[in-house]
Amino acid sequence: MTRSRMKTVVLASFVIIMASALVTFPKESLEASKIGLSMWWEVVFPSLLPFFIVAEMLIGFGVVKFIGVLLEPLMRPLFRVPGVGGFAWAMGMASGFPAGAKITARLRQEEQITAIEAERLVSFTNASNPLFIFGAIAVGFFGNPNLGIILALSHYLGSFIVGIVMRFHGPNEQKGKEKQKLKPSLVEALRVLHRTRLNDKRPLGKLLGDAVISSIQTLLMIGGFIILFSVFNRLLSLVNITELIGYFTSFSLQLFKLSPDLSIPLISGLFEITLGSKLASELMDVELLQQLIITSFILGFSGFSIHAQVASIIADTDIRYKPFFFARILQGFISAILALVLWKPVYLDNLAYGEVIPVSLIEQPSVWANSLWGLLSTYGPIITLISLTLYIFVYASRLFSLNTHKR
Q1: Where are the transmembrane segments (predicted)?
Q2: Are 184 and 357 a contacting pair, CB within 8 Å?
């Protein structure tokens, strides 16, 4: 009871302090809110919406189960998750945070995976998409497309290693399945695909409408968290809490032989990855390798803004948040170490010997990522506005239909 009361007091005090800070710094809070809204409006919403809708429809049509049967021999021995986890992993890397959590939660709600398998899966299927790594960080912040290769490799290899480590999380619930079919069965996969489609009685229009409504509702929630943490991060800086925490963090950085100047970007990145990465790239007096290590750690940890989004998504299931939190800390350190290891062979050697890694292979991802990033900034708001209008129309039509049937 004492612990519960203490938690209540702490939470209430935190909310009061936040409210007081909002009243004290209204102009700064509004500016921070606009920055968060701009990020969601221009980039996050239009980039994630197609993936979310397609994922919902693939689950409804049984394509995910089809993929699951084919990937079972790969995913089960490596990560101790069913083959459908391969779909969540691929979509999570392609579309970015928090698509992996969204798809994992849907798979759990469909009872295609157990709670423990979902906790293993969600721990390594949430990743930053290549568009953000190459377009925003490497080109936009650092102005150096070559760094995108190191950041991407350390991030995705870190995710893979975390998946291998998290396979030991929880008991082995299905010992027999890991020793079953070592070869994928196309016939069985097609049979499962057909059976799943027949079991879902929804017509195509209803399925598409459900996918749109579910996806946009999730993205509205994500937008709220982005704006909230953008304001929260700004308020922490205004009341000097960020500097206070950074003062103590600087001693920890010195233990790892990193510049204490990286403490502020690190603290900011723990809350929001975009701001933390931007601040790290702006430190002119800090060695580029150290900037890269901190940025890689921030990407691996993902930031409390992403944590809050994931926690909200899995709140409707029996998936626990603690394994995800542990996995994010683990990936932060693993990704930072990988950035250090890859620095010489991937970056320095390439500068000294251009033939080691063809320049075209390095520049190509950065070019298309930067182009896509520019397109999203230009046309993203239009896509968002059209999608929200469609959402309102579909949702209103369903409410009208429901009221009509009740009468």
Answers
A1: 48-71, 121-143, 149-169, 207-229, 235-255, 292-313, 325-343, 378-397
A2: no
196 located within any domain: yes
Q: Which amino acid is residue 79, in one-letter code?
A: F
Q: How far apart are CA 41 and CA 254, in angstroms?
A: 39
Is 178 inside a domain boundary? yes
Domain-embedded: residue 13 = no
DSSP 189-223: HHHHHHHHHHH----HHHHHHHHHHHHHHHHHHHH
- pLDDT tens per residue across span 268-281: 889 888 888 888 88
* Cβ proximity of 85 and 75 under 8 Å: yes
Q: Which residue has the higher pLDDT, 171 or 164?
A: 164
Whole domain around residue 131: which residue ranges? 26-406
Tokens of 36: 């968060």
Number of domains making up the chain: 1
Crossing angle between the packed helical segments 85-95 and 147-166, to the nearest 10 degrees = 150
DSSP state of 144: -
Question: Letter for the amino acid at 331?
Answer: Q
DSSP 354: T
pLDDT tens string 300-359: 999 898 999 899 999 889 999 999 999 999 999 999 999 999 998 887 766 655 444 444
